[in-house]
């Protein structure tokens, strides 16, 4: 009986330690985020199908430091942090490409599609975008810098570099994502303005 009681006590103690270790070692679930297209823009004016220009968007290129699911923020000069519990819900370059296509479809009277879609090779205009910076800095400012070019019939007709800075947060990731999202939507608006200017030349 004594040995049986001791065995029960040992099993109970081990079970309690395992339970405590599980509670102490548990981490909250990861949060996932997506960039979304504009929702407050007036739809572009209607244009007949024959007069509507076509725009093909090449896959957006992003820096290698952003080619990961974790969100990246700057913590100081030349220092960055990966956030394991705050992640992009899809590949960031694909998310940015999709949002730009959706934004331009709404902002332009044009047929906008990604270059991997059928018919993209026959597009009148081709848009290429290279993201140079897309993160929140140590002061809680969201930043986006991008180089973008518009080609018409394989001829470069516009080349720009655009930068945006918006107040975000240093610890609220929803606010960070919303500010980065607004930077991206502002880029789309400037691109739309660039396309409209070409159409009037």
Strand composition percent: 25-35%
**Spatial extent as radius of gyration:** 24 Å
DSSP helix fraction: 25-40%
Overall 3D form: elongated
How far is the N terminus from the C terminus?
98 Å
Major sheet: arrangement of strands: 5-2-6-7-8
Question: What's the order of the H and E elements?
Answer: HEEEEHEEEEH
The helix-and-strand class reads alpha/beta
How many β strands by DSSP? 8
Main sheet makeup:
5 strands, mixed
Which spans of ≥5 residues are poorly predicted at pLDDT below 50? Answer: none
Number of helices: 3
Q: Report mean pLDDT, rounded to a whole number.
A: 87
Explain the layout of strands and helices.
Elements: H1 2-25, E1 31-33, E2 54-57, E3 70-76, E4 79-88, H2 92-107, E5 111-114, E6 125-136, E7 141-152, E8 155-167, H3 173-200
Parallel strand pairs: 1-4, 2-5, 2-6
Antiparallel strand pairs: 3-4, 6-7, 7-8
């Amino acid at each position: 009986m004594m040995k049986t009681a001791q065995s029960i006590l040992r099993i109970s103690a081990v079970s309690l330690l395992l339970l405590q270790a599980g509670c102490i070692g548990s981490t909250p679930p990861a949060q996932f985020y997506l960039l979304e297209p504009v929702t407050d823009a007036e739809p572009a004016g209607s244009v007949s199908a024959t007069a509507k220009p076509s725009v093909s968007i090449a896959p957006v290129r992003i820096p290698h430091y952003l080619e990961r699911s974790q969100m990246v923020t700057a913590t100081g000069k030349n220092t960055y942090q990966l956030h394991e519990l705050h992640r992009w819900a899809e590949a960031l370059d694909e998310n940015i490409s999709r949002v730009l296509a959706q934004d331009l479809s709404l902002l332009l009277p044009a047929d906008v599609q990604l270059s991997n879609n059928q018919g993209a090779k026959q597009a009148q205009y081709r848009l290429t975008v290279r993201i140079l910076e897309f993160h929140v800095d140590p002061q809680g400012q969201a930043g986006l810098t991008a180089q973008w070019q518009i080609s018409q019939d394989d001829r470069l007709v516009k080349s720009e570099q655009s930068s945006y800075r918006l107040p975000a947060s240093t610890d609220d990731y929803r606010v960070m994502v919303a500010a980065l999202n607004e930077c991206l939507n502002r880029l789309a608006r400037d691109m739309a303005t660039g396309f409209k200017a070409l159409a009037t030349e």
